[in-house]
UniProtKB/TrEMBL annotation, chain A:
<keyword id="KW-0472">Membrane</keyword>
<feature type="transmembrane region" description="Helical">
    <location>
        <begin position="41"/>
        <end position="58"/>
    </location>
</feature>
<keyword id="KW-1278">Translocase</keyword>
<keyword id="KW-0812">Transmembrane</keyword>
<dbReference type="GO" id="GO:0005743">
    <property type="term" value="C:mitochondrial inner membrane"/>
</dbReference>
<comment type="function">
    <text>Component of the cytochrome c oxidase, the last enzyme in the mitochondrial electron transport chain which drives oxidative phosphorylation. The respiratory chain contains 3 multisubunit complexes succinate dehydrogenase (complex II, CII), ubiquinol-cytochrome c oxidoreductase (cytochrome b-c1 complex, complex III, CIII) and cytochrome c oxidase (complex IV, CIV), that cooperate to transfer electrons derived from NADH and succinate to molecular oxygen, creating an electrochemical gradient over the inner membrane that drives transmembrane transport and the ATP synthase.</text>
</comment>
<dbReference type="InterPro" id="IPR000298">
    <property type="entry name" value="Cyt_c_oxidase-like_su3"/>
</dbReference>
<feature type="domain" description="Heme-copper oxidase subunit III family profile">
    <location>
        <begin position="4"/>
        <end position="261"/>
    </location>
</feature>
<keyword id="KW-0999">Mitochondrion inner membrane</keyword>
TrEMBL record, chain B:
<dbReference type="InterPro" id="IPR036539">
    <property type="entry name" value="Cyt_c_oxidase_su7a_sf"/>
</dbReference>
<keyword id="KW-0809">Transit peptide</keyword>
<dbReference type="GO" id="GO:0006123">
    <property type="term" value="P:mitochondrial electron transport, cytochrome c to oxygen"/>
</dbReference>
<dbReference type="Pfam" id="PF02238">
    <property type="entry name" value="COX7a"/>
</dbReference>
<dbReference type="InterPro" id="IPR003177">
    <property type="entry name" value="Cytc_oxidase_su7a_met"/>
</dbReference>
<protein>
    <recommendedName>
        <fullName>Cytochrome c oxidase subunit 7A2, mitochondrial</fullName>
    </recommendedName>
</protein>
<keyword id="KW-1133">Transmembrane helix</keyword>
<dbReference type="InterPro" id="IPR039297">
    <property type="entry name" value="COX7a"/>
</dbReference>
<keyword id="KW-0560">Oxidoreductase</keyword>
């Protein structure tokens, strides 16, 4: 039986990369079919295949690490670099939308009434639900840190409690935002105010859902004893992502909700 | 280490069986020298899920290319 003379992970051949690419094709062309030909079938197939690929690809990574032991410190270092680069790319993604917001709001055109918020727009009160949402995300940052310390100290019960609280806070934020969206006196088509507001907060909300799901998966893995006090990178990646989502919200709150009202 | 010690304590009630540490069993299953790639190493459920995913994706790709060709063709007015 041959053994490798290096600490990197040479993965087994896998169908997920190519199937994932195909799923992306189906999702994007599905969007075109839905928008232009009023047919949702391709989009549904795309979203379903994307979900199936993600589930199995990440399931395989858990198998390779927790069950097969392939995640050496070298491999973990690479994963850390990867997650940092990914979060950085997401930061640039949001930067673009903040740019758009400031472009329109710092020098409001005559068509908007020369003011920000534009004439006729009733912005949401930043001291109402948005402030509660800020408190919720800040609290969830505390609970996820508590969970991390509990994992490192091998305190299983507290880790589970803290991570459960974090996930619940995440879902509470999403529920409140959904209600805010429903009740808002303005919509996405209400000029550039509506566009910048809903696209920025909308993408943020999507990231909250992604982050909450990642944390939920970590919770299930925590319950199933996958994490050890010294090796729990999946959890750390989820926590980093969650802090990033929190920071983006703080920027959104201060600029769009507060300064922009 | 402490975590492993806690997990090896005897579980008495049947309802607690779902919280028993199954990691060692899984480690044995996935390290079996059977030549299977990791995405199929879990057994029959893996193959079913793989075939469903691949089938859906391949059919969808054919569907997408078909409609791409159809929508590229000019429509003849009556």
């Amino acid at each position: 039986m041959t053994h490798q003379a290096h600490s990197y992970h040479m993965v087994d051949p896998s169908p997920w990369p190519i199937l994932g690419a195909a799923a992306a094709l189906l999702t994007t062309s599905g969007l075109a079919m839905w928008f232009h030909y009023n047919s949702p079938y391709l989009l549904i197939m795309g979203l379903l295949s994307t979900a199936l690929v993600m589930l199995q690809w990440w399931r395989d990574i858990v198998r390779e690490s927790t069950f097969q032991g392939h995640h050496t410190p070298t491999v973990q270092k690479g994963l850390r670099y990867g997650m940092v680069l990914f979060i950085t790319s997401e930061a640039f993604f949001f930067l673009g939308f903040f740019w758009a917001f400031f472009h329109s709001s710092l020098a409001p055109t005559p068509e908007l009434g020369g003011q920000w918020p534009p004439t006729g727009i009733q912005p949401l009160d930043p001291m109402d639900v948005p402030l509660l949402n800020t408190a919720i995300l800040l609290a969830s940052g505390v609970t996820v840190t508590w969970a991390h310390h509990s994992i490192m100290e091998a305190n299983r019960k507290q880790a589970i409690h803290a991570l459960t609280l974090t996930v619940l806070l995440g879902f509470y934020f999403t529920a409140l935002q959904a209600m805010e969206y429903y009740e808002a006196p303005f919509s996405i088509s209400d000029g550039v105010y509506g566009s910048t507001f809903f696209v920025s907060t909308g993408f943020h909300g999507l990231h909250v859902i992604i982050g909450s799901t990642f944390l939920l998966v970590c919770l299930l893995r925590l319950i199933k004893y996958h994490f050890t006090p010294n090796h729990h990178f999946g959890f750390e990646a989820a926590a980093w992502y969650w802090h990033f989502v929190d920071v983006v919200w703080l920027f959104l709150y201060v600029t769009i909700y507060w300064w922009g009202s | 280490q402490a975590l492993r010690q806690i997990s090896q304590r005897t579980i008495s009630t049947a309802s607690r069986r779902q919280f028993a540490n199954r990691v060692p069993e899984n480690q044995k299953l996935f390290q079996e020298d059977n030549g299977l790639p990791v995405h199929l190493k879990g057994g029959a459920k893996d193959s079913l899920l793989y075939r469903t995913t691949a089938g859906l994706t391949v059919c969808g790709t054919i569907y997408a290319f078909y409609y791409l060709l159809v929508s590229s063709m000019p429509k003849k007015p009556n």
